[in-house]
């Protein structure tokens, strides 16, 4: 594990209060997506860095802009600025979101119709540029 990913785990107090922490210095527009691992969250940044913090996705979802971020699955939130395309799988399987970075994220069956609507509207407005 790299130094940046172990920093959050080695501290005794949470240091990820948005706007106050050293780990949250990049603006929201630089955050590509977040993935949950239990009560921890991986934050994936545009510059290739990823940081593990001791907070749930629910915590971050309340902090992030609803205009840019959407929940894809119980364990994933994505920044719409980085979405390249959405693929629907079989009706019972949900879908996949392809990011400009090459990452592929799952979309739950339950959230698929909302994600389709939001991604389509976002791309129609021409905002899909990172």
Automatic annotation (TrEMBL):
Annotated GO MF terms: DNA binding; phosphorelay response regulator activity
Domain HTH LytTR-type: 29-121
InterPro entries reported for this sequence: LytR-like, LytTR_DNA-bd_dom
Family annotation (Pfam families): LytTR (PF04397)
Transmembrane segments: none
Source species, domain of life: Bacteria
Protein name: Response regulator receiver protein
């Amino acid at each position: 594990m790299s130094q940046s990913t172990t920093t959050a785990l080695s501290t005794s107090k949470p240091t990820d209060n948005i706007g106050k922490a050293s780990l949250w210095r990049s603006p929201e527009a630089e955050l590509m997506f977040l993935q949950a691992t239990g009560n921890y969250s991986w934050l994936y940044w545009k510059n290739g860095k990823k940081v593990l913090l001791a907070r749930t996705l629910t915590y971050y979802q309340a902090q992030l802009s609803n205009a840019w971020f959407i929940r894809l699955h119980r364990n994933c939130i994505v920044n719409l600025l980085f979405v390249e395309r959405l693929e629907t799988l079989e009706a019972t399987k949900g879908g996949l979101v392809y990011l400009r970075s090459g990452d592929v994220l799952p979309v739950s069956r339950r959230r698929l119709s909302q994600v389709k609507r939001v991604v389509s509207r976002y791309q129609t407005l021409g905002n899909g540029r990172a």
